[in-house]
Amino acid sequence: MLYLLFLCLAPGSRAQSPASQAAQPSDKPAEATLPSQPPALPAQIELLETRIRFEANGDSRKEVHTRVHIQNELGVRQFAHIGFNYNRSFEQIEIPFVHITHATGGTADILPSAITDQPNPAVADAPAYQDVRVKSLRILGLAPGDTLEYRVITTVSHHPLAPDFWLEHSFNHTDIVTQELFELEVPPSRKVRLYTAPATPATTMDESDDQSNPSVTYRWTRSSGSRPQHTGEVASSEPELVVTTFESWRQLCKSHLIEFFGTGMATPPEIEAKASALAPSTATPQARIEAIYDFVSQKIKTIDLPLGATGFHTRNAVEILSSGYASPEDKFALFASLVHSPVSVAGFVSTERIKDTAEFARPSAFDHLLAMISLPGFVRWLDLSIGVAPFGMIPSQFRGQHALLIQSTTEEPWHSIPRTLPFAAAQKVNVAASLSSDGALTAKVQYTMRGDNELLLRLAFHQSPREKWKDVAQLLSLSDGFRGKIISASGILSIVIPSCAKCAGGSMCVPY
Q: E-strand spans in 30-146?
C-alpha cells in the first residue's frame, strides 16, 4: 500500500473565477489558412542493403550497406553520431567504409580515429558487464544536400545458445527508405524453420552449387514505389520474417535456457548464510520467500540491460551477491539460489503479445523476465527488476498473457498469468485544510493507493531524483484538480505491512 503526503498552498488573493479566465472574442478578422504541406524528411535512405549468412555451427555474418541523402539540418544532427550495440564476448563489429559525397562536389572518407568503442552507458558502473558495448561512429562535416554511405559488418561466434540460431526482421513500410534489399543464407545441413508474412514473400530463392560451402539463399527486394498503400492501418508488431532452428518452445527451454535458469544446482555456503540471515528458520515458506524477494528486488541494483544482451548467460550467485548489482537475468539467478527450492521458475514474457508467429520458437520473441513462485495453495508472479514493486505485483501489460516457463519438469512450457492482482485494488484521498484570515488556503493531502496506480507512482518517484519529488507531486495534484503550489514533498513514500515483524500492524516501513 502506498501513501503519498504533500502540502499545497493556494493563495486566495490570486484566485480567478471561471468568468475571468474565459477567452475574449477577438476583433481581428480571421486570416485565410493555406493547406499545410507535409514536413520534409530529415534524411532519405536511398539504399538499405542487408546480407546475413548463418553457418551450421551457429556462427553468423551480417553486412549492412546504407546510403543516405541528408535533406536538412535535422538530418545532419541525426547522422552526426551513429552507435551500434554488441557484446564483445561473442560478437565483433567492423566499420570498414564511411564515405561522404558533398553537394558542392567534393568527397571525404571518415578516418578510423572517428570510431570509438566504449561500454554501454547502462553498465558504466558495473564491471561485470563491460562486454556489453557500443561502437560509435562520429561523422563531421555533414551538410544538407550531402550523401552519406557506410558499411557495418557484425560477426557472431560461439554464442552461448549455439549451435542453434534465430532471426527476426520486419521490412520498412514508409517512404523513409527508397529501396530495401535483404538477403539471407542458411546452411542446408540444418533443419531451419522459416516464416514469411503473406504480404512479403521472398523475391527469389537459390541453392548454391559450391559443395565445400553450400547454402540456400533467400532474397527480398522492396522499393517505395512497389509497396502497397496501407491507408488507415496500424503497423503490426509481429515480425515479417522469422528464422529459427529450434523445433519447439519445449526444446528451447530444456536444451539451452534451463542450463542458465534451472534451480537444481547445489547452493554455495555464502548463499545459504545470506538466506538464513534474511529469514529465520522458524519463518513460514511464504514469509521466507517474501523476505528474499524484498532483498533481491530492493537491495540488489538493477542494471537495465535488454533481455538477452549477455546471451542469456547468468553469473555465479556468489559473485552477484558480492557485487550488489545484477541484470534482470542475474537477479532471478540470485533469487532462485537464495530460495533454494524448485518453487521458483523463470518466466519469459513480451510487451507485445505473440500472435501469428507463436509456433516459431526463438528467444527474441520476449523482452521481459518474471519469476513464478508456486507453493501448495499459493502462486505468485514477481517482477524482480522493477525494484519497488510490492510482493506479488507485476505490470498490468503482462497480466493475462502466456509466459514461457524455463523448467524441465513439464511437457507444456506455457503458463497463463492471472488477469487480476492477488489483492484488492483501492484508492483513497484525504484532505485536511485550513483557511487563514488573509484568505490563504493550506491543505494536507494524503493519497492511499493499492494496485496499478500504486505501482505507477512508485516508479515515478523511484526514477526521479529526491529534489524532483515536489515537481512530481505538483503534477499529481494538478491532475486531481488541486491548483495550489506544492511546498513540501519530503519523505512521502511509505509502505504499510500489517504482518511486518519489525513494527506493529498498520505502522509504516519506508522502502528506500
A: 43-54, 60-70, 81-87, 91-101, 107-109, 115-119, 132-138
Cβ burial, residue 142 (10 Å; 0-12/13-18/19+): buried
Residue whose C-alpha cell reads 504533500 in the numeric block: 6
Helix or strand or coil: residue 357?
coil
Amino acid at 325: Y
Exposed/middle/buried for residue 113 (C-beta within 10 Å: 0-12, 13-18, 19+): exposed
Distance (Å, whole) CA 350 – CA 364: 9
What does residue 131 show for φ and ψ, rounded to 5 degrees? Answer: -70, -20
pLDDT digit string, tens, across residues 303-361: 999 999 999 999 999 999 999 999 999 999 999 999 987 788 999 999 887 777 788 99
pLDDT value of residue 18: 42
pLDDT tens by residue, 383-402: 999 988 899 999 999 999 99
CA–CA separation, 158 vs 168, rounded Å? 20
* pLDDT score of 14: 42
- Residue corresponding to grid cell 495550489: 484
The type of residue at 485 is K
Q: Which of 453, 428, 445, 437 is nearest to 483 (CA)?
A: 445
Q: Each residue of 110-165: pLDDT tens digit?
A: 888 899 999 999 999 999 999 999 999 999 999 999 999 999 999 999 999 999 99
Structural domains in the chain, CATH included, are 43-245 (2.60.40.3140), 250-416 (3.10.620.30), 424-509 (no CATH)
| Cβ contact 330:315 at 8 Å | yes
Q: Return the bridge partners of 269, or none.
A: none
Length of the chain: 512
Q: What is the mean pLDDT of residues 287-292?
A: 94
Contact 70, 149 (CB under 8 A): no
Q: What is the pLDDT of residue 353?
A: 77
Pairing of strands 440-450, 426-435: antiparallel
Which is more confident, 45 or 477? Answer: 45
Three-class SS string for 376-390? Answer: CCEEEEECCCCCCCC
As a whole number of angstroms, the distance between CA 184 and CA 165 comes to 13
| Contacts (Cβ under 8 Å, ≥6 apart) of 304 | 122, 385
C-beta neighbour count of 239 within 10 angstroms: 21
What H or E segment, with its residue span, contains residue 346?
A: strand 344-349
Give the CA angle between residues 19, 22, 27 to the nearest 5°. 125
pLDDT of 488 strictly over 90 = no
Angle at CA of residue 350, ends 292 and 252, nearest 5° = 85
What would the pLDDT profile of 444-466 be if each residue is shown by its tens digit? 777 788 888 888 878 877 777 77
Handedness of CA 123, 126, 127, 131 (dihedral sign): negative
Determine the Cα–Cα distance for residues 337 and 319; give it in Å rounded to an integer.
Answer: 12
